[in-house]
Amino acid sequence: QILILDFGSQYTQLIARRVRELNVYCEIHPYNHLPTITPDVKGIILSGSPSSVRDVDAPEVHLAAFRHKMPLLGVCYGAQLLAHTSGGEVKASSIREYGRAKLGTVKAENPLLKGIDQHSQVWMSHADTITSVPDNFDIIASTETVSVAAFQVEGEPTYGIQFHPEVTHSLQGKLLLHNFVVDICGCSQNWTAESFAETTVANLKQQLGDDRVVLGLSGGVDSSVAAMLIHQAIGKNLYCIFVDNGVLRKDEFAGVLESYKTLGLNVKGVDAKEQFYRALAGLTDPEAKRKAIGRTFIEVFDHEAHLIDGVSWLGQGTIYPDVIESVSVKGPSATIKSHHNVGGLPDFMKLKVVEPLNTLFKDEVRAVGRTLGLPEAILGRHPFPGPGLAIRILGDVTAEKVDILQQVDALFIDGLKREGLYDKVWQAGAMLLPVQSVGVMGDERTYERVVALRAVTSVDGMTADWAHLPYEFLADISNEIINRVKGVNRVVYDISSKPPATIEWE
Ligand code: XMP
């Protein structure tokens, strides 16, 4: 495997993605929490950083621990750190370089640059630049403005590059990473979804033995794939719980429960609708609604977990970005699990935790799910918020409002699927607004509810654009909703992007 030492760059996760796309396993570790270097670590990549090596409190790492011992590639800050700590000079650039640049001369005979074209386009993002390097640093590429764009330390497999090979605008960045990871480090390219599933199931068998595990399914990809892996390892000793919180999509509880059963999972469906509605009654503040749902879920889950004899593990679908977030250079996020600290931990939280997906990115989770035979209906699902329709009903939540919104949402989602638009948008849903408007149906004046449709394109939900759905589709769906859902006489389409709006309305 490859170890990536994170100095806090916004691109560190991308480096990991690219290495894994080469079918080579890698892990990110914060520079200040170095893991033990095991023999299966074949090379180390030092990431970029928002800091400058010239800062008094610049992040540093004891490079002597692995330099000479294995190949090393410094990217941007990583390269500057190598130069700086070896007696080179790093200064503020006279012009800050952000964006595309062209490599000038490239020493193509160097193993790192094998196959890289002269004048290849690369992506720069730096305020500092290496102005001089020690004599034993061989400059292997430069650009018009950066004389040290890439170097190798003579006689050792230590390299530095000023540009970012992990960004797709570095057109041959993937080839460069391939040269480093495969040719220089000698990693085998055998890390695939299949091999991951195989070794994970074998490890889970070892780890869990005859123990019992309880796991909460949500209908989403992560918990479903985690359940499938654990199920393959321990079969009926995995007890899954799927809770109907009353704010799921129309027919979702029955449909998803059925597909879990078809997959052979030992799953108990718990209808806790009334308990959730009681907890939500009269609440209008979005955060209060979220808290009520979170608290009620814990009560229900804790109760159900107690009904299972001798359970000793809690299975969770935590994925890699959550893990990186909680051990990042910037320190653990202060808000994570705040509610768990209030009034002591529920009993199920005292169980040992098993998280088979905690080294995977979302698309890798999907690939593993696919190899395990999970249906596309689960794998290709849009994200759906934990508090469900409760945060799409603006104001207080009642069973009657949920019923209306479920009908509207189902017509919208079915329409997207029918027209082949579902997979083109990242997330879609409907909001029930706390206003009524005047309409006319036949000869009658109506005074009924307004719904807003929302569909967005996005990569990760952090930013999003409103989906430019065809007008004809919007016209048909609007008609269908008003004609078929009693109590709704107006449909609007949300054309705000995130930021400044958010995807959900609450
Ligand atoms: P926003 O509305 O912040 O949403 O743009 C970004 C993504 O997060 C989802 N979301 C939630 N998911 N619990 C969740 O599990 C929540 O309280 C919650 N709020 C928003 C939202 O659906 C979108 O995918």
Task: Give a quick rundown of the structure.
The protein has about 500 residues and is of the alpha/beta class. It is about 30% helix and about 25% strand.
Report what the structure shows.
The active site is at 76 (nucleophile), 164, 166. Catalyzes the synthesis of GMP from XMP. It comes from Spirosoma radiotolerans. Homodimer. It is an enzyme of class 6 (ligase). 31% of the residues lie in helices and 25% in strands. The chain has 506 residues and is an alpha/beta fold. It folds into 3 domains: 2-184, Rossmann fold, CATH 3.40.50; 194-379, 3-Layer(aba) Sandwich (Rossmann fold); 398-493, 2-Layer Sandwich (GMP Synthetase, Chain A, domain 3). The strands form 3 sheets. Strands 2-1-3-4-9-8-7-5-6 form a 9-stranded mixed beta sheet, sandwiched between helices. Helix 4 packs across helix 10 (362-371). The model is unreliable at 331-343 (pLDDT under 50). Xanthosine-5'-monophosphate is lined by residues 290, 383, 385-387, 427, 461, 498, 502-504.
